[in-house]
């Protein structure tokens, strides 16, 4: 479950090409010579998909072995390249977060951008690394996972409580036997004490 | 006399029993007139007793049938290969066995109630009560063993399915998306079933853990529904339909929330069960404490008695010597008078 790239673009109206505002990609698993071509590919496909995503819509496209998820929000577009295993919901929640963060840090400055900005945005690279695990991006998934772990732990607890119950049952039997035996002991002692005063 | 836990041993004395019956019948044949009335009463009693034995016999038969089916299920579960998976049969068989086990539970409870009503109304001898108690306990333990085996078979089946999923992952990369988290996404099918399962089995501690094992088994069943949903989503994405995609996105979020909520409900159920069990065991612990206190008091009393006895023994020697002196004095006087 891997994210290969995250892009933020400005989606102008349908005619012109989208402008790349931030780009973060993880091409470490490709060979050295393929890296630049993969980056180009990412840029090109990202632009195409973003230009074809109508505003306020989400879209997912299958391209070769990647799923490209795009979310267009009022002209600001976030595109993510993930593999097939990445859950779709987490992908879109991640894109949401990226967009919010971008708007928080850059305000409305992006609307005036006319050409691709080449400055790396550290948040994006950090996000790329952090959200390789979809549970981080999607709180619901994280909660579900934790709840399932808790349930397993609780099942184990119930098993051990049952074992404890069995042990307690055996203990109660033994202790009742003990009390019976000690009572007999007491009676015997009293008997030997009471009858032999003469002798 | 309390019935011991564990295996109840019995000796087969049917031969002796039959000889006694023969001798009694002969004695009854000699004096038929006086014994008519008690004979009819005995008949009634016999009927009631045979009702009990009939029920017990049917329960035992059902238990043996269920264990046979269970062994078949175990064979099926062991046999499954990756491609030739008789899931349908296994599930049908499991459902049938579960129904039978719950039916047997209710029948056994009825038998217990019947027996206690018999004990209350009739003038049963001590042997009758112990016999019926032994029979009921034997059936109970047999049913508990069957349930334990059932639980083991289910765990084995889930492990097999896990192994199959792993193998399928190795061979086909397409299906692996759906199968990476086979036990993460679950439907709350098992919660109600688990709760109702433990309710009719209050007497068998081990079998309520079968409910906990049923939950991971039901997860295997619930794989199919998230599978269908995710494949649906994939198809829709590939067709690039906008509005359904929005819907599926929202729907999947809503569904995930529902899952979370149901999981939390299950967790609350489990906690409630845990609390009841612990409170019951707390009462048992208090009883143990009382028993130990009684034992301590008894032992202390006995020790003081023995100490007093020891004192009296050791101090009594003076009295004994005085008595002997008096005796010797009498002897002397005797001797004086005689000789």
TrEMBL record, chain A:
<feature type="domain" description="V-SNARE coiled-coil homology">
    <location>
        <begin position="139"/>
        <end position="199"/>
    </location>
</feature>
<dbReference type="InterPro" id="IPR042855">
    <property type="entry name" value="V_SNARE_CC"/>
</dbReference>
<dbReference type="GO" id="GO:0031201">
    <property type="term" value="C:SNARE complex"/>
</dbReference>
<dbReference type="GO" id="GO:0005484">
    <property type="term" value="F:SNAP receptor activity"/>
</dbReference>
<comment type="subunit">
    <text>Interacts with SYP41. Core constituent of the SNARE complex required for membrane fusion at the trans-Golgi network.</text>
</comment>
<keyword id="KW-0472">Membrane</keyword>
<keyword id="KW-0175">Coiled coil</keyword>
<protein>
    <recommendedName>
        <fullName>VAMP-like protein YKT61</fullName>
    </recommendedName>
</protein>
<dbReference type="GO" id="GO:0005886">
    <property type="term" value="C:plasma membrane"/>
</dbReference>
<dbReference type="GO" id="GO:0006888">
    <property type="term" value="P:endoplasmic reticulum to Golgi vesicle-mediated transport"/>
</dbReference>
<keyword id="KW-0564">Palmitate</keyword>
<comment type="similarity">
    <text>Belongs to the synaptobrevin family.</text>
</comment>
<keyword id="KW-0636">Prenylation</keyword>
<dbReference type="InterPro" id="IPR011012">
    <property type="entry name" value="Longin-like_dom_sf"/>
</dbReference>
<dbReference type="InterPro" id="IPR010908">
    <property type="entry name" value="Longin_dom"/>
</dbReference>
<dbReference type="Pfam" id="PF13774">
    <property type="entry name" value="Longin"/>
</dbReference>
<dbReference type="GO" id="GO:0005794">
    <property type="term" value="C:Golgi apparatus"/>
</dbReference>
<dbReference type="InterPro" id="IPR045848">
    <property type="entry name" value="R-SNARE_YKT6"/>
</dbReference>
<dbReference type="GO" id="GO:0006906">
    <property type="term" value="P:vesicle fusion"/>
</dbReference>
<dbReference type="Pfam" id="PF00957">
    <property type="entry name" value="Synaptobrevin"/>
</dbReference>
<dbReference type="InterPro" id="IPR001388">
    <property type="entry name" value="Synaptobrevin-like"/>
</dbReference>
<feature type="domain" description="Longin">
    <location>
        <begin position="7"/>
        <end position="123"/>
    </location>
</feature>
From TrEMBL, chain B:
<feature type="compositionally biased region" description="Low complexity">
    <location>
        <begin position="229"/>
        <end position="241"/>
    </location>
</feature>
<protein>
    <recommendedName>
        <fullName>t-SNARE coiled-coil homology domain-containing protein</fullName>
    </recommendedName>
</protein>
<dbReference type="GO" id="GO:0031201">
    <property type="term" value="C:SNARE complex"/>
</dbReference>
<dbReference type="GO" id="GO:0006906">
    <property type="term" value="P:vesicle fusion"/>
</dbReference>
<feature type="transmembrane region" description="Helical">
    <location>
        <begin position="318"/>
        <end position="338"/>
    </location>
</feature>
<dbReference type="InterPro" id="IPR010989">
    <property type="entry name" value="SNARE"/>
</dbReference>
<dbReference type="GO" id="GO:0006888">
    <property type="term" value="P:endoplasmic reticulum to Golgi vesicle-mediated transport"/>
</dbReference>
<comment type="similarity">
    <text>Belongs to the syntaxin family.</text>
</comment>
<dbReference type="Pfam" id="PF05739">
    <property type="entry name" value="SNARE"/>
</dbReference>
<dbReference type="InterPro" id="IPR021538">
    <property type="entry name" value="Syntaxin-5_N"/>
</dbReference>
<dbReference type="GO" id="GO:0006886">
    <property type="term" value="P:intracellular protein transport"/>
</dbReference>
<keyword id="KW-0812">Transmembrane</keyword>
<dbReference type="InterPro" id="IPR006012">
    <property type="entry name" value="Syntaxin/epimorphin_CS"/>
</dbReference>
<feature type="domain" description="T-SNARE coiled-coil homology">
    <location>
        <begin position="247"/>
        <end position="309"/>
    </location>
</feature>
<dbReference type="InterPro" id="IPR045242">
    <property type="entry name" value="Syntaxin"/>
</dbReference>
<keyword id="KW-0653">Protein transport</keyword>
<feature type="region of interest" description="Disordered">
    <location>
        <begin position="198"/>
        <end position="244"/>
    </location>
</feature>
<dbReference type="GO" id="GO:0000149">
    <property type="term" value="F:SNARE binding"/>
</dbReference>
<keyword id="KW-0813">Transport</keyword>
<dbReference type="GO" id="GO:0005484">
    <property type="term" value="F:SNAP receptor activity"/>
</dbReference>
<keyword id="KW-0472">Membrane</keyword>
<dbReference type="InterPro" id="IPR000727">
    <property type="entry name" value="T_SNARE_dom"/>
</dbReference>
